[in-house]
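Quick one: structure for this chain?
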Amino acid sequence: MAIGVVMAGATGWVGKALVPAILMQEDMRLVGAVARSTAGHDVGVVAAGNYSITATLMKKFAQMAAQYGPDVEIIDYASARKPDAPSGTALELAETLSEIRRAPTALPTSEVFGHPEARGATMGEGTAVQVHSLRLPSYQLSCEAVFGLPEERLTIRHDAGTSAVPYVAGALLAIRRVREFSGLVRVLDALMDETLSV
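Got it. Here's what it folds into:
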């Protein structure tokens, strides 16, 4: 039996690539689509986050590193025209790392003089993480977690290309497995946990 899919953001950057990809799948059926540009028309609703498989791996590896290196900052890169800062990927990464890392050794921004805003935005509910968003021509989408320890440094970085293909592959994977979960689950993270534990 085909999986019924309702696509939110169908006219967006990823949506424009994902809708035709869903239509080509034998085990999926597009039953509705939603977009701000079609507000007021009959359409269904689905919520989705970043479904890039490699972005999810970056997050997983950064979580592992945060257990050993509490000093971490996030750098978020995108084109000059990207309107949100930080990206959803960087924000989610900061929130996740703030929940698991120990107290950092870097001075808190409250103790920085001059222009403390140059240290980036402080994000997360636990032990907050500094996030820096660059918006410049020639950049696509990239996000990196930079960990510092005495005399060494680790950078875990995800780079996306110029198309929405990485998000389409992860979304199709999540659609195929979504019926295996109940309640609200970050489906791709759960799938990656399952895969990494094998």
